[in-house]
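To: structure desk
From: M.T.
Subject: fold request, one chain
Message: Could you run this one when you get a chance? Sequence is below, nothing fancy, just the single chain.
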Amino acid sequence: MSKVNRKVKVLAHFFVPYAVLLAGFVAVGLYAYGRTAALVENQTNETAYAIMAQTKETLDRRFEEIETIAEQVAGSTKARSFPYVGDPFAGTNPARILELQKGLFDYPLFNHFILDYYVVYPDKDLAVSPHKVYTLRQFYDLKFQYDGFSFERWKSELSDRYRYRTFIPGQSAVYDGKRQSVVSYMQSFGTKDRVALVLMLIDNSQIQSMLRKLVPDSGGFAFITDDRGQAISGTGDFASTAWAADLPDGFSSAAIDGRRMLVTRTTSQINGWTYVSAQPESAVLHKVRYFEQLILTIIALGVALGLIAAALFAYRNSRPLWLLLRALPAQHANGTDGNPRNTWDDVRTSVAGLVYRNNSLEEKLEQQAPLIRSGFYERLLRGQFASDKDIALAMEHSRLQWEGDYFAVGVLAISGYDGTYNEEMLTELEIRKMAVRDVVDQAYGAAMSAHDLGENQIALVLNGDAPTSAAFLSECLNKLKELRARLAGTLNIAAYAAVGGCYSRLTEISRSYEEARLILQRTNWTETRPVVCRDDDALPLPAYYYPPDVEQRLINLVKSGDVEETVALLELIRKNNLEGSGMPAGVGRILLGEMSGTLLKCIEQTQPDDRLGSEELDRALAAAESGRLAKDAFKELADAFLRMSRNMNDRKKTS
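Reply: Done. Structure tokens follow.
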């Protein structure tokens, strides 16, 4: 097979998926085109129904409030007793009229649906509101009258029959000299012989403004009919409401006055009223046609751009493979020139080999993780890190994560292995220390980490949060006592432990470790005191405290220019040796001699040849002289160490 044909096949192999994807895109576009009309119509209906349901609930509450107010007014004692008054304007009866007026609450002040309301007594020729008292003639002439209603007809409407929760549909009327649309509500009370009624005038424009939200600028209409099919209020241009009675609640399509309309209908569960809105289908189909043009345009552009993109992507994706094929040997395992499928199999085999080697390398790195952690703990406990940042980076590399503001180190010693060791004892001890580390990992997790110190000792690094350092140290003691009890109960291992101080910096962990080692060397252990901390007052003093690890840490801190940690370490040496009066003068001179030697080592390692620090050298020699107080000589040496540390820090900043 020629190279050109192979290249065409490889190119086609990449082009075909893009072509299939493009065909799928076109199919989705056509499907979307077919579903757009139904989707838009459904969304329109759902939106219209949600607005209608909200409007219905609001108006139901309003009408229910009106009925409640009317019942409260009709139920008042003064309103019910007034029909039994004779001539309302004779004798003291006007005073009773005023009492009735004062007893009426001014509901329109708080309910904008209500224009005003009146208690009407037709046989007394009287209408009373919270503000004024009228005769019926005065009320008709001065306050309220429907268009086309004579006074006699209007008075007959008030007194011809007993009315129970009756709404008069909205119609044009004159109220307070102004023309507006009013819906009336009547509630009769009293007896047949002495009938009275509550007349409430409702602002129909408030109802119509809510109905307009159902048909915003669409050429539609909306109306409300009561349980008898009578239109109470409406907005828009509609001639009849009878056709709505046969429609079901929900959405439907109907021909109204020669127009196709989408109708939304719902019925109130409270009073049985029907709410209806209708919008022309042409308004909805306008959106459908817009989406139709949009989708067809997108499909056409998508096909054109898709073909171009498919060709470009196919070429771009096939080119790296061809470069790889040119890098591979021309002769394959089967001894013949392979087709693209065999070539890809070769590539797949090569990649599989790389994956295998990568996994093998990761497994080897994972096997090295315990050694990496062990090296980290060695450097951490011996104070070989110069800063908290270096420790944090080393922890990340070792896959360790500690949480908390306080740190402390305990040294756990397994009893029964003092003296000379043999191979059998060392094997048994390794097994026991392995079991101890497993118990620590399972019981305490990241709050306590174990590190083998050799022979019968294990270092325990504790971390966590507490209100104070003393509280955290108390928690550490409790954890070590609990750990000792676990080891004795589950593994039959007797152990004792010492805990160093509690510190908040990672670089101070080595200080806590040195304190724990010092306590471990000084203390005589008993069953009543198996765990001892740094604050124990009953510890005997050694000759002096200046182990090789502390000396090496002091040299490293001076070389790194970490002034703060150098001060802290010198203070630790001073506290452990010079505080109190237990150290003999001869022992003090030995200590100062060793520290003078340390200072000379620092001078040699930090100063270039033939440029030894003369001032620091003089201090080292002066401190070693006999006859000087140990505290004064120690101060001279400490100042020399700090001077060198500051000089190294200045050098780093200058660099």
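Reply (cont.): The chain has 17 helices and 17 strands. Let me know if you need anything else for the meeting.
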